């Protein structure tokens, strides 16, 4: 097969945007067009001011700046981009279904299906179609069936190429991946995609498998990672009652090279667009094959995560004399982790929801999340009216505005800047006793206690 000359990616989100930017950066001879039906998003990708890109990722502005206009283009003309491409990545969102069969568990594939139908309708030459979104196993089969049955008689080769980038480190993950995984049936199509990655990834790190292994590996990788977080979070609760310190336990077990030291940081709970969704998918697939023990085993990772978020909120309420009604609780952080503006499944949302049920006043500061996003996240839960969310929650642009005169501080995201605040000044402005609930084990206990704070951290 000839080297691909034109790549199109449908979906200019957290996955499609950074991935295509790096592919274009590293393959200057390949023309890469990223399309999205969301006009505002495309306009933001085309913004001359690189600080205004629609997603925040360290280092992404430089990559986009180098390739955009040269061989990287962002457009809303989906049909034209499909028509011209040799290879089409599908990188649209696959949220958990909110209706019908599999509600709350299965992935909603309507966006994928719409893409497939559009490709089938428009394509007049052979295409390699690459699934990049996180998908349940055997989606490729559905994709192939739609393309073959509704297309214009052209050939489609389907590849699965799951993404393993983590938000906040997407650019370095893409530049230096542990591995690239490509699943497919056509050796030629696989080779075409291998060539794209070989522009910067050593060949031995590019793993090729059959389609289903590739699809399943993605779910399993995320399930294993999430399981580590739930495992250490389960131990954090045990530490709190026994006097052990979860950081010390993490360090001690992480030194065992068979266990390894990464992903053992106890927290208020994992979030993000992948972990929960992928495990729910795994659980759904296992149940659909009547593998109940397997399904229940993995489901427990999520139940423990839910428990960790609830437990944190309840700890706050209990410590503040069993009532937070009318009290100001400053939230440091809303994103699901540092260095991203993404809030999907963020623990902060669920902790806030719990406290708002008790009529607390929550004042949110996050360096990268907008007020609109915070309200959207809370309104989406449907727990209370949008008016009540706006009555009880305030979002501020200055951290000291959130902290000043608060009854308590809750750290929900591990942004580095929180460590650098003038905590003596914060203490002077806060109500007494001045509580700090550190859901990320970010701040310095000794320093805060010396300043007179009542400091609580997960797992201590
Ligand atoms: C994850 C996978 O890491 C990535 O490979 C996949 O492609 C997409 O899903 P992401 O969700 O972006 O990436 O971030 P990740 O760094 O995995 O963190 C997920 C959540 O777990 C965050 O809320 C993070 O704060 C939490 N976490 C992670 C912990 O609480 N403790 C840890 O030790 C590690
Ligand atoms: P992810 O984290 O998987 O990248 P995002 O929600 O950030 O998810 O991005 C997915 C993007 O895909 C959105 O910008 C959405 O507008 C776009 N999208 C979804 N369906 C289509 C479609 N049929 N055609 C074009 N763009 C689409």
TrEMBL record:
Catalytic activity reported: UDP-alpha-D-glucose + 2 NAD(+) + H2O = UDP-alpha-D-glucuronate + 2 NADH + 3 H(+)
Residues annotated as binding NAD(+): 11-16, 36, 41, 92-96, 133-134, 167, 274-277, 344
Transmembrane helix among keywords: no
Binding site for substrate: 163-167, 218-222, 258, 265-271, 336-337, 440
Recorded superkingdom: Bacteria
Any one Gene Ontology molecular-function term assigned to this protein's record: UDP-glucose 6-dehydrogenase activity
Keyword entries, A-Z: NAD, Oxidoreductase
Catalytic residues identified in the record: 274
Record pathway: Nucleotide-sugar biosynthesis; UDP-alpha-D-glucuronate biosynthesis; UDP-alpha-D-glucuronate from UDP-alpha-D-glucose: step 1/1
The UDP-glucose/GDP-mannose dehydrogenase C-terminal domain, residue ranges: 330-445
Documented EC number(s): 1.1.1.22
UniProt function note: Catalyzes the conversion of UDP-glucose into UDP-glucuronate, one of the precursors of teichuronic acid.
Entry protein name: UDP-glucose 6-dehydrogenase
Source taxonomy: Bacteria, Pseudomonadati, Bacteroidota, Sphingobacteriia, Sphingobacteriales
């Amino acid at each position: 097969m000839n080297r691909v000359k034109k790549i199109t990616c449908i979906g200019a989100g957290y996955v499609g945007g950074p991935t295509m930017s790096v592919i274009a950066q590293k393959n200057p001879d390949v023309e890469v067009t990223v399309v999205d039906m969301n006009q505002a998003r495309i306009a933001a990708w085309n913004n001359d001011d690189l600080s205004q890109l629609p997603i925040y990722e360290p280092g992404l502005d430089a990559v986009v700046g180098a390739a955009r206009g040269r061989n990287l283009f962002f457009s809303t003309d989906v049909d034209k981009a499909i028509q011209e491409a040799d290879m089409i990545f599908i990188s649209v969102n696959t949220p958990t279904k909110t209706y019908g069969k599999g509600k709350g568990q299965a992935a909603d594939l309507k966006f994928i299906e719409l893409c497939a139908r559009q490709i089938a309708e428009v394509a007049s030459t052979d295409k390699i179609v690459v699934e990049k979104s996180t998908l349940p196993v055997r989606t490729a089969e559905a994709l192939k069936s739609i393309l073959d049955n509704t297309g214009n008689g052209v050939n489609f080769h389907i590849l699965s190429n799951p993404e393993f980038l983590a938000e906040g480190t997407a650019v370095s993950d893409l530049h230096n991946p542990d591995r690239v995984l490509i699943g497919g049936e056509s050796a030629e199509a696989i080779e075409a995609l291998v060539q794209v990655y070989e522009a910067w990834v050593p060949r031995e790190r590019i793993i090729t498998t059959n389609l289903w292994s590739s699809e399943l590996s993605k779910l399993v990788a995320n399930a294993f990672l999430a399981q580590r977080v739930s495992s250490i979070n389960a131990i954090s609760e045990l530490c709190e009652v026994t006097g052990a310190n979860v950081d010390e336990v993490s360090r001690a077990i992480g030194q065992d090279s068979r266990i390894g030291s990464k992903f053992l940081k106890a927290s208020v709970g994992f979030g993000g667009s992948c972990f929960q969704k992928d495990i729910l998918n795994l659980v759904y697939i296992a149940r659909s094959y009547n593998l109940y023990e397997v399904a229940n085993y993995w489901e427990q990772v999520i139940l423990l995560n839910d428990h960790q978020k609830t437990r944190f909120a309840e700890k706050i309420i209990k410590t503040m004399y069993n009532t937070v009604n009318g009290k100001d609780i400053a939230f440091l952080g809303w994103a699901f982790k540092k260095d991203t503006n993404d809030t999907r499944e963020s623990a902060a949302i669920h902790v806030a929801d719990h406290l708002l049920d008790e009529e607390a006043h929550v004042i949110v500061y996050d360096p990268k999340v907008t007020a609109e996003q915070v309200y959207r996240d809370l309104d989406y839960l449907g727990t209370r009216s949008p008016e009540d969310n706006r009555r009880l929650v305030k979002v501020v642009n200055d951290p000291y505005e959130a902290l000043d005169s608060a009854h308590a501080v809750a750290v929900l995201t591990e942004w580095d800047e929180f460590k650098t605040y003038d905590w003596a000044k914060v203490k002077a402005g806060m109500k007494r006793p001045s509580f700090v609930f550190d859901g990320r084990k970010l701040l310095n206990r000794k320093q805060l206690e010396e300043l007179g704070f009542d400091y609580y951290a997960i797992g201590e």
